[in-house]
Amino acid sequence: MSLRRFVLKRLLITIPLLLGVSLATFAMVHFIPGDPIDFITLFTELDPETEAQIRAQYGLDKPVYAQYIDWVISAAQGDFGQSIISKRSVTSLIMARLPFTLLMGSMAFVIAVVTAIPTGVAAAYYRNTTVDQASRIFALVGIALPNFWLGLILILVFGSWLGLFPILPPTDSGLLSVDMIAYTLLPAIAIGTGSTALLMRLMRSSMVEELDKDYVKMARAKGLPERQVIGKHVLRNSLISVVTVAAIQVAFIISGSVVVEIVFAYPGIGRLLVNRVGNRDFPVIQALVLLIGVSVILANLFADVLYAYLDPRIRY
């Protein structure tokens, strides 16, 4: 099977997955007790006629299955409706926050990969030494620490005590400004630490397994430089399993940003989602949960394609 056919097959598989995610998203949102109109009536008295008009305006008077069909058709066209609370377009609300979450997620992923791969390689090459033991301790601690608790510690130590990083978002700075990147670094570390620990241990295990194989012994017997043996042969084969988990970690970073953004008061989609859940703003909640679900599917699709590229045997 060629790589093109392999990719096409994976793309076709994502279609029912996307429908399943949309159905699960819609169902979860509508299982929440109450709806946006009930939330509005907590603070504003509405007569029955006005309440009925508002429900009809947002389609809340229709059966649930009809609401789902209307939402799927509109979402497929890129229209997620209007926020019931702020009266703004859902797409504009998300696009105003999404770049900040992408910046934080990208930084967290870069921190994880740049730290995990060299450390995992070193731990495998110097196995059962102090380097290996230190990496093992870091991995256990990194996986065990909740990212929101780690975020609070980072704020306390590096933001409050040492004053090395800002703990409040800059108001007049652009997305890629120095101030914004400095502010984003701590939440990126809080999110990326768990991924770093996981990828590092996986990299170490894969390297140890490859180092014990016959082709490595043969390459060394032929007199190839150790750097070439490790870098050209062992590392590439070891990365095959790491790539899959690394791609999945992208989705984990995006979904894990919800709690971290609350801790750091970060202006991303995670914080927007939490606020809108409290307001029962169905259109915004549905769009954000669907976005997170789609990110998981796309991350797995990217992992499958990259996996097949690195190891052509996967296509068969």
N-to-C SSE string, H for helix and E for strand? HHHHHHHHHHHH
Mind telling me the C-alpha Rg? 24 Å
Largest sheet: none
Tell me the span between the first and last alpha carbons: 6 Å
**What helical percentage do the residues reach?**
over 70%
Quickly give the CATH architecture of one domain: Orthogonal Bundle
The proportion of strand residues reads: under 5%
Tally of individual helices: 12
Q: For the record, what CATH class of one domain applies?
A: Mainly Alpha
Structural class: mainly alpha
Spans where pLDDT lies below 50 across 5 or more residues? none
Please tell me what the overall shape is. Answer: globular
Give the rounded overall mean pLDDT: 85
By CATH, the superfamily of one domain comes out as: MetI-like
Q: Briefly note the CATH topology name of one domain.
A: MetI-like fold
The number of E-state strands comes to: 0
What does this structure look like?
This protein has 316 residues and is mainly alpha-helical. The chain has a domain at 92-279: MetI-like fold. Helices cover 77% and strands 0% of the residues. The chain is built from twelve helices and no strands. The protein has helices at residues 3-31, 36-40, 48-57, 64-76, 90-125, 130-144, 147-161, 178-211, 214-221, 226-264, 269-279, 282-310. It is globular. It starts with a helix and ends in a 6-residue tail after the last helix.
